[in-house]
Design goal:
The structure is a single chain. The protein is mainly alpha-helical. Among the domains are: 185 residues, Rossmann fold (3-Layer(aba) Sandwich), CATH 3.40.50.300; 60 residues, no CATH class; 102 residues, Orthogonal Bundle (Arc Repressor Mutant, subunit A); 67 residues; 72 residues, Arc Repressor Mutant, subunit A, CATH 1.10.10. It contains 45 helices and seven strands. The strands form two sheets. Strands 2-3-4-1-5 form a five-stranded parallel sheet. β3, α5 and β4 form a beta-alpha-beta unit. One of its GO terms (molecular function) is DNA binding. This is DNA-binding CsgD family transcriptional regulator. Keywords: ATP-binding, DNA-binding, Nucleotide-binding. It comes from Streptomyces zagrosensis.
Amino acid sequence: MASGVEEEPVDGHACAVDGAGEASGADGAGARAAVGFVGRVAEVARLRSALRRPPCVVIVRGEAGVGTSRLVDEVLAAPESGDWVHLRGACPDLRRDVPLAPIADALAGLPCRPDLALPSVTGVVATVVPELAQWLPKLPAAAADPQARAGLLRRGLRALLAAQGPTVLVVEDVHQADGATLDLLHDLLGSMPSQLRLVVTEHSTPGLPALGLRLPQHVLVEEITLRPWTADETREAAAQWLGERAAEPRLVELLHARTGGLPGVFEALLGAVCEGGAPLGSVVDAIRDAGVPLRLRRDLAQRRERFTDDAQRVVEAAAVVGRAISVGVLAEVADIECGRAEQAVDLAVRRAVLRADGPDPAFRHPLDRQAALEAVPRPRLARLSLRAARALHRGGLAPLADLAHLYLAAGRVREGLRYLTAAADRATVEGDYTAATSLYTLAIAQDPRAHGRIRTAAKLARTAQLARADERVVNAIRRVLDEDDPPPQLRGELRLQLGILLRNQSGGALDSLNEIARAIPDLEVSDPHTAVRAMLAAAIPSIKGWPVSRYYAWLERAETFAVQVTDPVARAAMAANRASALMFLGDRRAWAAAEELRRPASSAMEAAQYARGWTNLTHATLALGHNARAWECLERATAGLADSSSPYVEGLTQTARLVLAWHEGRWDGLHAEADHVTRLFREIPDLTAEAMLVRGLAALHVLGDVPRARRDLEEAARTTCFDTGFVLTASAAALARIHLEAGRPGQASDAVEVAVHRLERTGGWVWGAEVVPIAVEALYGSGQVARAHRLITDFAAGIADRDAPAAWAALTVCQARQAQAENRYGEAATVLAKAEEAWQGLRRPFDAARAAEAQGRCLLHAHQEHGGHEQAQQEHGGQERHGSKERTDKEPGHGDQEPPKAAVSVIHRAIETYRELGARWDIARCHRLLRRHDIVTTHRRGRLGYGDRLSPREQEVARLVAQGRANRDIAESLVLSTRTIEHHVASIMRKLNVTCRTDIAAAHAQAARLGKPGSGAGPRQGDRR
């Protein structure tokens, strides 16, 4: 569950605390050989449409790396172009004097067709393409005259292409075409063969018209300009490479920024990062720390070959400055005249080294800039950096951070540090805490003085609470603590801030709690007020943290010092933390402590602390099972936030609403809402984990999508940092339900092992309501009877004096499971009826329905045992068996007695609740239970035939096939055998008259557009029998 902090972080875990400062599978698919085709839907459609209407000319423009060739490849790979003659050539670099090279390369690919009747003029083509001489007509006599040969070549090319029938000629990089090639293409456009399709690609950097002439009116012309990928398209491409790991916070933003959205650059970067497989650690760190791929270095070097000296110097100057800047500044940094600099910039833009979308030139993407910068010799780099810093400073053009980086690169450490800290201070004032955190971290790394690092670390520790801090921030603060010997008061403050930082954002619960505990002795001496707040921060429990007794020890210790605190804001923060700690522990004193938060606030900061406290109480009461109280707490939190700006605490209220909706059965649209919140807070691990958990639960029970649910549930458990009792337990329980449904009790017990171990180690049994009942079921199912008994005993003892109604209801379910395991089915059914009533009283209909379903199963088992006992008595008395075949299974439908009405009624009640919730996965399970016991739920005269239409089950299978799901995944989602799915797929193909799964997807998409899920309007009248 979740709670808030005094320093509200932009990113952090979902159970934050008050501090002392001021206001695949799931692991990804690994590297891929090439990214799949992403985006470009409209461009593909336009290109295909044009090529269907010859004669036509299609001009595909885009900057280098944007994917013009890939677009052409994708379209020409389609089956509809299979009967065309494909000819393709690329214009070489202008430095290579090879006239007509693309035409010669393209025509060299012509198939040998000796039977084709060709005009004699085509023989001249052999002068350009010798490979064709053996089957072209003899060279015309007139071709001996060089002046006449050019005209004959144009006529011969046109005739040769016309004779081929449907043809597509692709000429790439026409911006590099030599004059002879352009003349030949111009002439071809003047009189195109009727079945010719001409596609040319060019770089759009110069911004000049393709081919440099007006295109003829009688020929269809389509001009397509490719733009770099959007952030969403970059996300799609990243998912193809990395699978679920593409959801790592900040990954897409970083990839998009470093590659400029250019597919070629994206592929080069991820190809280098993922060489040999996906990174073992953080993908974000790997991408951020990656150097420039060799392929991009070579590409940039080739584009800079034969540059003038001025152009080389301007490119170096642009690399040093690092952002779009005027030509005048570049001239000053490069130390050349402005006119010469303009000519140099023009050359660099034409060669796609720089771009000039606006008035100021810059590199096309950061990796090009990095490659150019790393190519500058170090002594020259220092001189250029100093020159750039002075030029920008004089003009007042550069942000302080840019000046800082330039002075540091110039070796002027003192000036660089001054500008770094000034830039960080300004960013803090302006609310850009992420930038400030990064700058303070860099200042600590660059500062050679211990006292300077200590002073900066104090600022960093406070600012980082409000930003997304990574390991570099944590390491910087730890370096100061370990190496620089700060004074006791500052040491205590740094450790407290570090502990809160680890707790809220980037570390584990134990690390954070231990840092806070280490801070308290120093704070008790130097700052008792802050020491009390640190004690209360250490008192908020976590399933990943200490044993419960340690939290109580800090609570008691804080209460002895609390009377010394007089500041209203500090007292409000202490009240919020104390009420939160007691509530998360299920302590009955929590309600009295919560009353302290009802006091009127005298300032906005005091109100913010009360709002944080109510938000924490919302999550705590949810974890305990007090849904009605949770709503009251949530309303108070929302009201308190209306007068203050606290984005992080607002995020906590959103995840609380998701969990409330889950527990109370308001599942309509819940998966989409959870998906939205997951994406909205992807920078904050514990908020992401809670939202992802609800998304996974909805995927399982509402969508019935087992593979997707498993990915979300496992990722939620990995993501949560400071779990206060819901994410780890609920995700483990759901994963265990999947295994139990598939008949894998051993794997189910493995799935809950970590969560149960943490409950046993911490003694936080009040958080066990989600996982302990399913753990008991899995343990009994896998034969671990003694362990199951011990778990029930420990659970009962752990909640004995706790105010945790959900845990008490869960204990009732556990006791029923024990009776069931001991074949006391009637007693188990009675206990489960009490559990159902308890869950209903807690406004948790799903848990109530599960208890009812379990009760029905027990009644069926009890009836089965009773029927078997009576049958044994009859056999013992010598009564004659009925029927010619002895039955060996003991399902109740196979005896002489009808299934008990009570069992059927209870199971139907569970089904009705599931139906109201939209729990399709659970409805299917109940129907399978009834079928196994030969219980028919509705009367019907016979099987409903569907003729050539898909049955409802086949429609469901077709929908999953259309999603690209494998038979095994579909079988797991629908809880059917793989062989059954294979039969369904074969039947679908037969009814749709298709031969592959791809065609099923296409037919399904067309049916969806027409609003017809099957192939007809419904079952035919004659099919009902």
